[in-house]
Design goal:
The protein is 33% helix and 13% strand. By secondary structure, it is of the alpha+beta class.
Length: 886
């Protein structure tokens, strides 16, 4: 297969993106005392799933139906147009481009396949399903991984059977180095030898806290606690580090972390993909997942791990029944047996041996030593098996009573059988003709051949995957392609030494991981090295540790752990991670919907569950930062973290804000904040408190209408809003007078007080700090009684004015006085009276002219809109605010 994993294009994306989940959670939690955010930017590569779509759905059709007329092999391509090169396909023919990426309707290629503009291929119209595949391919941008130049179509000049990866690995002695004091392990010697040859020095060791966090994330997927970090920093000896390594390798969380890595390769999901009316769930898929976790925790030898998954029914291991899910939990392709078997061949060969055997389905592999006959020899093994559903486990693979007779399908078409082939292992590993399998389908023999010490690929591929997970880059940068088109190893002798040692040590994954993390190479700082950039711009020589982003699982699990809510229960049915109420289980136990992968999974670069994943994509996008800022899940964890930071023993006083900030840092980041960070957080909290207060004031209506009592002792009013509004009037209820509030009411004409405890009150809420001056007139037209009493009472200053008017009117002016945002001004009427007062002007200081007062008019005009009901709020404008009462 051509290099499907090679980066074809790099696009610019968000300039700002949250890098670390715990830091974002900390900011959100300060938002619960208040809100914060941070962001950075990177670049993203083409999604490997798009390349996979081309390789499995588009290229085989081009090879079978188009290359005979439109390729270099055709001699003189018809129409002077070639389809065997990405470059020439994009440029088109004499008539111009034939594809418009993103626009199938305007693409000549699509109309030709539909038999609209042309009739291609002329031998007969392709099926609607194939045409739909091409439409989808063009719609997603027509990704084409064929990076070779158009002219370079000739066969490879090097015999692919002599490729380095097909030769048996050799265990070389550690190379001599000058700085022998730095080489803690044999691994260090291999790395240092290359660095010294390039005249580059290794980096110093990482800080103790950084190293322990790295180790925890790599071995368990969870961060260390603040207490663990503090203890390690106080005694960061080699012995203490070694104890930490052994403790984490023995932790049950180790299997969850490394089991998830394997599930990426196994293209694990809980559903079948599109399957029309059939139930698309795999109800027992989780039992395969749990078996994988247990296998890693128990350090099952990797060769037996492979055999159990391919031939669980014949391996002799009574506990391996669920391992059959490795093969049977893939996509169902509408139960198309040919596509199902193709998927399983790709899984076993690319996933386990780093060879793209599936590319030989339609023709001999163009680059690697894989003839089409080899592909169909493996196909024959699978075709000679049956799949048996089980009530309590994933479906089982079993040999059919009679093995199938297998033929090569010419150009991948099952309706065009070619020569008969035997069931055998890949011919590139054999001296001469490969020997046919003898027992049943040959599935157990196939499993043993893949897991054999004599197989030069399997140990190398797994060792390389482990190295890549721990160091951030594989010794072979294309972990699922060890073929001719894959990358050459940066340290081939080290790769071979690790592979042979791995096999010598009983194929133990834990011993392999321990050996790597104990090395000085792994313990290096990841700080940038400008001095080594020219000699090693990609850090392939490992002069420093590669910085790595948290994956989706560590991100989510870390948020839950910081919030104190992580449920570490192991095993059991898969749970929904993206719907409320949110599960507190570890992300490995999340339900994986193959056809409609939730946005959360896609946003944080989860592995494509439709194909064996070589590696997860590494993207940086605004949606990642927005999730951390806005998602209900992140907000929920931030609130929980804030509550956790305030927790104190019973009958203890509450923590000060600075103490809570210290708690937040320890829970979220595993360390105490610096003096500067505490100061910044205190400033942030104070600013947020002011903003909250301002928002609360802004949310209050400018005018409210109610009743209450003026208390001369406190010099304040007891205000209650009228509960009823009808026909432009506020009062106590539907019946008038009301049983409780009596005759008390307010409307645009004025109002009516009730008894001595139910004065009529108009309340004004000050929107911002400034000065307030009140001018107006209190009127009473009736001659009976003792008159009326009006008061203006400030919540901050108490009574600022009082007037008794027996009859007639009285001026009610109040000189300017300072007010603050949120102050209330109550205009109170006792007894039977008519009041008219105007708030003429309102002033506040502004930054436009320091020391001066900017003024604008704000009051209540004598219209119906000045006494609004609950359903509508309108802006109050200059006018009279006290109206005639009675």
């Amino acid at each position: 297969m051509r290099d499907a994993l090679r980066r074809l294009r790099i696009v610019s994306i968000a300039r700002r993106l949250c890098r670390r989940a715990p830091l974002s959670l900390l900011a959100l939690s300060l938002s619960s005392l208040l809100v914060a955010s941070s962001a950075r930017g990177e670049e993203a590569a083409l999604d490997p799933a798009a390349v996979e779509f081309f390789e499995t759905r588009i290229r085989p059709v081009l090879v079978e139906h188009c290359y005979s007329c439109h390729s270099a092999a055709a001699g003189s391509p018809k129409g002077d147009f070639r389809l065997d090169s990405a470059e020439l396909l994009r440029s088109g023919g004499p008539g111009g481009a034939v594809i418009e990426p993103g626009n199938p309707a305007e693409s000549t290629l699509i109309s030709a396949l539909r038999y609209e503009s042309y009739e291609m291929p002329p031998s007969g119209k392709l099926s609607d399903e194939i045409i739909a595949d091409f439409e989808q391919w063009v719609a997603i941008g027509a990704p084409d991984p064929r990076t070779e130049a158009a002219a370079a179509d000739e066969a490879p000049t090097v015999d692919p059977r002599k490729h380095w990866s097909l030769k048996a690995p050799q265990k070389s002695a550690a190379p001599p180095v000058n700085d022998r004091a730095w080489t803690r392990t044999v691994i260090d010697a291999f790395i240092l030898a290359r660095l010294e040859a390039a005249n580059v020095k290794p980096s110093p060791a990482a800080e103790p806290g950084t190293l322990l966090r790295r180790l925890h994330y790599d071995l368990t997927g969870l961060p260390p606690t603040a207490a663990e970090l503090e203890q390690f920093a106080a005694n960061s000896s080699d012995a203490e580090y070694e104890q930490a390594v052994d403790r984490l390798l023995a932790s049950p969380q180790f299997g969850e972390r490394w089991g998830r890595y394997w599930l990426d390769v196994a293209r694990y999901a809980d559903t079948k993909g599109y399957c029309f009316q059939e139930d698309r769930n795999y109800p027992n898929a989780f039992k395969y997942r749990d078996w994988v976790i247990g296998a890693f925790n128990g350090d099952m030898p990797f060769d037996r791990f492979i055999v159990n998954q391919i031939a669980a029914d014949q391996s002799g291991d009574p506990n391996a029944a669920a391992a059959s899910g490795f093969l049977t939990l893939g996509r169902r392709f509408l139960n198309d047996a040919q596509l199902i078997n193709d998927d399983r061949i790709d899984l076993m060969t690319r996933g386990l041996m780093g060879l793209s055997v599936a590319c030989a389905r339609c023709h001999d592999h163009k680059y690697d030593a894989i003839p089409t006959a080899d592909y169909y020899s493996l196909y024959g093994v699978l075709a000679s098996c049956t799949e048996t559903p089980r009530d309590d486990l994933p479906a089982a693979m079993a040999d059919a009573p009679q093995p199938a007779t297998q033929h090569v399908f010419l150009r991948g078409n099952s309706g065009s059988p070619g020569p008969e082939v035997t069931r055998h292992f890949l011919s590139c590993f054999a001296e001469g003709e490969p020997q046919p399998f003898q027992n049943g389908s040959g599935r157990l023999e196939l499993a043993n051949a893949i897991a054999s010490r004599n197989n030069p690929l399997t140990a190398r591929v797994w060792v390389n995957r482990v190295w890549g997970k721990l160091l951030g880059r594989g010794i072979v940068a294309t972990p699922s392609d060890f073929g001719v088109r894959g990358e050459a190893p940066t340290h081939p002798e080290l790769l071979d030494w690790l592979a042979v040692t791995f096999m010598d040590e009983s194929w133990s994954t834990k011993r392999l991981i321990r050996r790597i993390v104990m090395s000085n190479v792994y313990r290096q700082s990841s700080a940038p090295r400008p001095d080594s950039h020219e000699a090693d711009p990609t850090n392939a020589l490992l002069a420093r540790m590669n910085r790595r982003r948290l994956d989706m699982e560590s991100l989510r699990d870390g948020l839950l752990q910081a919030a104190g809510r992580l449920d570490v229960t192991m095993g059991g049915p898969s749970v929904q991670l993206t719907t409320a109420p949110y599960s507190n289980r570890r992300a490995i136990y999340g339900f994986i919907e193959r056809q409609n992968l939730p946005a959360f999974f896609r946003t944080f670069d989860f592995a494509n569950p439709n194909t064996p994943a070589a590696a997860r994509p590494q993207t940086a996008s605004p949606s990642q930062a927005l999730f951390m800022l806005n998602s209900p899940f992140a907000t929920e964890q931030a609130r929980s973290l804030a509550e956790r930071s305030a927790a104190v023993p019973e009958n203890s006083p509450p923590l000060a804000d600075t103490d809570r900030v210290s708690q937040l840092y320890q829970f979220a980041l595993g360390r105490k904040p610096s003096v500067e960070e505490i100061a910044e957080a205190a400033t942030f909290v104070a600013a947020g408190a002011e903003a909250d207060a301002a928002a609360q004031v802004a949310s209050q209506p400018r005018w409210q209408y109610g009743y209450g009592t003026y208390d001369p002792l406190s010099d304040r009013a007891d205000f209650h809003q009228f509960p009823h509004f009808a026909n432009g009037t506020w009062n106590g209820g539907e019946a008038f007078p009301d049983v409780e509030t009596g005759w008390a009411m307010l409307n645009v004409q004025g109002g009516h007080p009730g008894d001595a405890t139910h004065a009529a009150i108009r309340r004004f809420t000050v929107p911002a700090a400034g000065t307030l001056r009140i001018e107006g007139e209190l009127q009473r037209h009736a001659a009976e009684g003792n008159g009326v009493l009006g008061r203006i009472v400030s919540s901050a200053r108490g009574r600022v004015g009082e007037w008794h008017v027996p009859t007639g009117g009285s001026a009610t002016g109040v000189e300017s006085f300072p007010v603050s945002a949120g102050d209330t001004i109550d205009l109170i009427v006792d007894s039977i009276e008519t009041i008219i007062t105007t708030i003429r002007s309102f002033g506040r200081r502004t930054s436009r002219s320091p020391g001066k007062t900017a003024r604008w008019k704000l009051g209540a005009r004598s219209t119906a809109s000045t006494v609004p009901g609950p359903p509508r709020r309108r802006r109050l404008i200059a006018g009279r605010s006290w109206r005639r009462c009675c």
